Amino acid sequence: MRRQSKNKPQALIIGGGASGLAAACLCASRGIPVTLLEKESRVGRKLLATGNGRCNIWNSGPPVYYGDGDFAKRVLSRCDVNQVKSFWESLGLVTYEESGGLVYPVTRQAAVVLDCLRLRLEASSRCEIITGAWVTGIRRNEGGFAVTAKDGAVYEAPLLLAAPGGPAAPKLGGSGSLLMPLIGLGHRLIPTRPALCPLVTDTQPVRGLQGLRMPARLCLKAGDQAVTATSGEALFTDYGISGLCAMQLARDAGEGLEKQMPVTLVMDFSPALGLAPQYMGRLNPDDFEARAPESRQRLQTMLEERERRLGRPYMYLGLLPRLMAERVQGLAIPEAAQCLTGLELFVTGIKGYDQAQAAAGGLDCADFDPATLASRLVPGLYVTGEALNVDGDCGGFNLLFAWATAILAARHIISSSQ
Ligand SMILES: Cc1cc2nc3c(=O)[nH]c(=O)nc-3n(C[C@H](O)[C@H](O)[C@H](O)COP(=O)(O)OP(=O)(O)OC[C@H]3O[C@@H](n4cnc5c(N)ncnc54)[C@H](O)[C@@H]3O)c2cc1C
Are residues 226 and 336 in the same domain? Predict the structure, then answer.
């Protein structure tokens, strides 16, 4: 998409992802001319993949953020879920909410979310979108900023909003390439690493389980200490454990492994059968309990079906580690189910950026004003979204942060340009 704006831009926006597009929409709709530079051949590629193509657009529950979680809370105290909702309503998007505060477009299509942003920008004469513009350098000059793209093109404007996201999901545009130019301007970086990605575990004990989905409570231990716990549907793969609940543990697993601690994953399947969890004192069970009756029924049916097909002595072969299978042979289903607790796997790694939904780390938030996202070091520079040292839990928190930071930065650009 390449459109000429009639006016010299007041702001350059680097990155045509969630926060860059939202900021461009707001600025353009208030008459502020902007030029948006996107390195890919089209904008919003990652957005299209969010929420499995449904786009979990925000979460209306209590904020769950890591990295500089306080900064995220300060941002959201200035632009809360209601203001984010109003922004989307002004673009004509209708949403609905699922349990756990998960909000989706009512059409259940991420494409509609992107269309709302794109159509607003296409209808505006105030926004020029330049795709294939991979920014490699940022310089300050008397007029504000000059940024250089890989093809040698130079773009200039008094203000600069950097919304380049993080290095997660490179096939969808994820890249840390703008971090170095921003560090060159004096900003500090908290090293990035994959977050929200599957866990690589020893697979010997769970061989034969690939493709099986089981409702479970998961607890991550680093050394002897329980670090984090989640619940949901765990997916057995040929390399380890996936599923959103496992992905939420990747951040802490990565940290433990970096510190060279033994990291283990305790999988507890007992709640699926209505049994008290043995290990999971620290859990918030709300989400799981809401789905427990259905999950319990599914697991019960699955166990009964297995017994019918394989016979009691073989019922757990290929379903559980052999040792556990030996323990449960001959037991009635409820008793056998108790033995499903405490499957413990060594975590040997986490999948890389390729399979991550977010990156931990990023630009140090201490260098930015949470009310405006303006740099405290470089006048006229704003940074929004995942490029900052904030990462959220699954469930819409990352996009919520992207929208909120974009709204606050755009408001400040608008007010300082009038
Ligand atoms: C598969 C997947 C599913 C997800 N699902 C959800 C979900 O349902 N809910 C949720 O809240 N979060 C979800 N996330 C996370 C969420 O998509 C991101 O946190 C969010 O998009 C970050 O927004 P952003 O604007 O900061 O960056 P991005 O949306 O990543 O946009 C950054 C843009 O900048 C461009 N760019 C980067 N560097 C340069 C450069 N040097 N020059 C020019 N352009 C550049 C990129 O190509 C990209 O288009 C998901 C992520 C993935 C990968």
Answer: yes
